[in-house]
Amino acid sequence: MERCDVPSGSAARGDLVPSAILGLLGTRGPVSRADIARILQVSPATVTQAIKGLLSRGLVHELDHVPSHGGRPARLLGLVRSAGGAIGAKVTADHVAVVDVELDGVVRSSQTYPFDPASPAALDRLADILRQAMADQTDRHLLGIGVGIPGAVDSQATGVVSAPTLGWAETRVGQMLRSALGVPVLVENDVNTLAVAERLYGIGQSHSSYLVVTIGRGVGCGIVVDGAVYRGAGGGAGEIGHIPVTPDGPVCECGSHGCLEAHVGAGALVRAAVDRGVIDPAAGMDGLLRAAAAGDKDARTIYADAGAMLGRALAGVVHTVDPEIVVVLGEGVDAWTYWAAGFEQTFRRYLMPARRDLTYVVEPWAEDKWALGAAALVFASPFDIAGAAGDQGRLVRERLHAGQAAR
């Protein structure tokens, strides 16, 4: 399989370096090689080799020199935005969010479609949604489609999915969509897609090892180590929502008892609020948040207790992975003020003293972030040193070269 022109010694650190360069140029504008190395915290040699591959693929171009204080003037590199785009889709238990994304991560359009994963025709419906998105994208070269799923995915290339929240077990999502759509399709755990997007467009531009933790209906974690997403032996790494935290706790959607998610996921918080008389069952998470904002002590205690339990569990994950930083995302961050009341103190208390100054950031949330993460899979696949994208990565590269020839 064709590989990106990056030295083998950088493989552990540089799986996403070329893609991170694209994201950097897209978000910050033209940058010199030296500044790229400094910002991404990689060696100048790694940047030089990665840039060679990007130049040969027509993804970046060299611009004017800029003045230098001694030595050779630096030459700026700019992004060729016309090189191609991608479609990203996030599948949930009741809808699919779809975005059309530029190479620099700019979302051109965003749509949401109703979806029933339990329907016998669910995959046909998903294919129809993506086919419509392809039809709407008529003015740009499509490199491929990324799909984020809330569950375990064996590999991006094959896309065999086990997702209890969707009722899918060993479902051949990738194979079906590729056959129906005729374009490269990459399927990945949805939180891992956010981790890729952070590497290209966010915190991963300045940190090579980090955790992306999501709170909402469930709890997920994307793990990036030395610039590469760690997927585990079967694609299931990062399922921290299924860390057992109580021996005889409530039943989790995975079928086990006492999982973290069964205590702090949205469903668990709503049940606790109903049991305490804080909200009516129909009020859901919106009702719980309104109650907390209005000063209801029980509502705030529910959030604080959830934050404390999350903090204890996440401290254990930090000790295992040793990240530089933790990013907290997801639908649940709208209520982070109330989570934080329990999280901050507990998280610090359970960290070893040497790790207690670890930084975590809570990023604002929007639905299309999930789908943007899925699109980022496509932009990362041409530089897939680890081979996660498999044959689909090769097909993305072929489409990239075809687009260059047509320009």
Automatic annotation (TrEMBL):
PROSITE patterns: ROK. GO terms for molecular function: DNA binding. Residues 20-61 form the HTH dtxR-type domain. InterPro entries: ATPase_NBD, HTH_DTXR, ROK, ROK_cs, WH-like_DNA-bd_sf, WH_DNA-bd_sf. Signal peptide: none annotated. Gene3D superfamilies: 3.30.420.40, Winged helix-like DNA-binding domain superfamily/Winged helix DNA-binding domain (1.10.10.10). Belongs to the ROK (NagC/XylR) family. PANTHER family: BIFUNCTIONAL UDP-N-ACETYLGLUCOSAMINE 2-EPIMERASE_N-ACETYLMANNOSAMINE KINASE, ROK (REPRESSOR, ORF, KINASE) FAMILY. This is ROK family transcriptional regulator.
